[in-house]
Amino acid sequence: MTDRGPTPLPPHLLAPPDPAALPLPPPAAPAAGVRLLRGAVYAIPDGSRPLTVDLWLPEDATGCVPVVVFVHGGAWRTGLRDDLGPRFRHWRPGPFARLAQAGFAVACPDYRLSGEAPYPAQADDLAAALAWLHTRAAGLGLDTARTVLWGESAGGHLAALTALTGHTRTDTATITGCVTWYAPTDLPGLAEDRPPGAYDPHDPASFEAMLLGGAPADRPEAARDASPVTHVSTHAPPFLIQHGTDDALVPARQSVRLAEALRAAGHHPDLHLVTGGNHLWAGLADEEVTGCYARTVDFARRRTDVAEA
Question: Which domain holds residue 177?
């Protein structure tokens, strides 16, 4: 009898599980009328950690509800998927629970940070999150044909990039609107928009360089491709663009550039330059910060046909 050694394992046993078939996390109840599924796996990139998403769902919805996908900031380098920034951490209920109480599902996905993978990994991850939501829509009670993207800072950049390139993808959610808060939109233009000496496009240690995998000046095509303004077309969804006039990290001119590009393509973006606002809405009174949030919710209502309660 010939000893042939162990039988090789079938390839399907070595493959990672399909995130669309994994069980969902048990629900929590963080606020009245809200069901929270925290940490559902939506993608398992090769060589990387599993990527997860939090889902804030209305408890007593009578039909499929529209979706707001929130993309966190953190200079593409850090951040928490459910953190809207320091001005909102004391809210009870929190901003995402309030959206669920208003009749939206809210998805807050992770994405690979620049220390894990360079661009376009982050955009690929958001596309995967949208595809996962679309695949799981029936079981979760989601209407992904009414999806609004919303991001702050680096997350606003990624939300805009996804909204402006989403028409090239299939089997995913339909983006009916996009909200950006103080987001970079034109990476090559940062050298012109920031004060003299505040930004060096040749610096390999800048946040933009770490995103691109090299200094923007040395990777001009990547910097251009990673800029939302590059991808503006007649297919762009409606935009709400909010930015503080006194932003010390991302100049408000970056949001103006996006609005100008959208207008040149025949669109009518809603641009709000908030007087005195710094990054993360520092420098604004509480009622002004609440106004930025309320403007976002109102835009999401209009873009998804959700009536005010």
Answer: 22-186+227-304
Average pLDDT, the chain: 95
The CATH number given to whatever domain includes residue 253 is: 3.40.50.1820
Give, in degrees to the nearest 5, the angle at Cα 280 between 104 and 260.
Answer: 80
The pLDDT confidence band at residue 169, using thresholds 50, 70 and 90, is low
Burial tier of 251 (Cβ tally within 10 Å: 0-12, 13-18, 19+): buried
pLDDT of res. 197:
84
Q: What pLDDT score was predicted for residue 109?
A: 98
Q: For residues 51 and 40, is the Cβ–Cβ distance under 8 A?
A: no
Q: What residues have CB less than 8 Å from 112, skipping those under 6 apart?
A: 45, 48, 51, 121, 122, 125
Q: How many CB atoms lie within 10 A of CB 77?
A: 14
Distance CA 209, CA 231 (A): 20
Mean pLDDT within 222-243? 98
Q: How confident is the model at residue 9 (pLDDT cuts 50, 70, 90)?
A: confident
Does residue 194 lie within any of the structural domains? no
For residue 14, is it within any domain?
no
How many domains, in total, are found in the chain?
1
Q: Is the pTM of this model over 0.70?
A: yes
Dig out the tokens for 97 from the structure.
């629970």
d(CA 164, CA 7): 49
Q: Can you read off the two tokens belonging to residue 108?
A: 């807050």
For residue 203, tell me if it sits in a domain. Answer: no
Cα angle 134, 121, 214; round to 5? 160
How many CA atoms, within 13 angstroms, populate the side-chain half-sphere of residue 146?
Answer: 19
206 within domain boundaries: no
Q: Which two tokens stand for residue 219?
A: 């990777």
Q: What residues contact 190, with CB distance under 8 A and at least 6 apart?
A: 184, 199, 201, 208, 216, 251, 254
What sign for the dihedral angle of Cα 145, 150, 226, 275? positive
